[in-house]
Structures are given as C-alpha cells and as structure tokens.
Amino acid sequence: MDEQEIRLLLTQLLMPIVQFNEYEIELALDLFSFKTFESEAHVFVSQDIVTEVHFVLSGLGRYYYLDRDGKEFNKSLVKQGGAFTSIGSLVDSSPSPFYAQALTQCKIASIRYDELVALAEDNPNWGRFVRRLYERLALKKERREASFLLLDAQQRYEQFLMDFGSESENIALNQVAMYLGITDVSLSRIRKKMGLT
C-alpha cells in the first residue's frame, strides 16, 4: 500500500469516531502498521501477550475460546470498524485467554497500545478516540449480555442479522450458531421457521 492509500484507509477508520484534522492524523500515521490476514489466519492466539490494537479496515473476524477438549466457543464477532485486542494483555501484560481470527480476508491497521495511550495523553482528540473505543466496547458487551439474558435464540438471531446486515452472508452458519450460543441444528430450525432456507 502506498502512503496515500494508507492515509485514506486510516481516515476512513478514524473519522466516524472522532473528527480529526490532518495534523492529528499525521501524528499517528507512522505509528500504524498495515497487514492483510487471509481467511482463518490468526491475528493472535491464546497465551500471546498482546501489545497492539488491531483495527479492522475491511473484513470479518472473531474472538474465540478453546476448551480442554478442543471445542471452540465464539466470544465475539468483529466487523469493519471494530478491533482485535486483549484488554487483559494490554493493561496487565497477562496472556490472552482467547484467540483472534480472520473469518474473511481482513485488512488491519495495528498500533502499539503504549503509543496509542501516549497520543491520547498529548492530544485531546486522540484522548476522545480512546475513550470512545472503551465506551463502544462496554456498550457491545452490555448489549450482548442483555441478549443472552432477555432474548430467546430466534430473537438473538434476528438481532445478529440487523447488526451485521449483508455481511452476515459472509459468516459460516456454524460460526453464527456458536456466536448465538446455540447448536447448528437449532439455527437451522430457526432459519427454516423464518423462511430463510
């Protein structure tokens, strides 16, 4: 990617969250690295010490846990505008308890967390950016928790379809079922009931 393409991708990522000026984007440009992860590639794995925040410029991914028997459990799905990281790793330097994986090809903009914090301490807009990232994370977790406590499986699936829109077609149904906390068979029944099969 050339510098103009990098600047455009970074601007598209940042501007919906905070209205940065060109100088503020310039401050961060050299701090970001850009990578492409192919489908099924891991951004990081369990037990890694994660030191970066990996923003998704395009594509879809997931966080998942692996139990002792090798069974996977989706923690969260990540779409364009979201990010991969482990807060525990960033804050406590502890190993990540989960994996982060691309489900489709993902273009990622990565920045070291300590450099992001330094930007936030030196510039009010970068400070707002970091605060809004944490606010978005808290809201996402709050909504997910409420969906498991207050919605049945079909309602959770309907919410998933609203949240992911046309991108939902790019996520394998077994991944969707894991995300919803149901079996593949249950999801198939729900889809049939909704006239989607």
From TrEMBL:
Residues 35-122 form the Cyclic nucleotide-binding domain. Transmembrane segments: none annotated. It comes from the Bacteria. Pfam families: cNMP_binding. This is Crp/Fnr family transcriptional regulator. It comes from Pseudoalteromonas obscura.
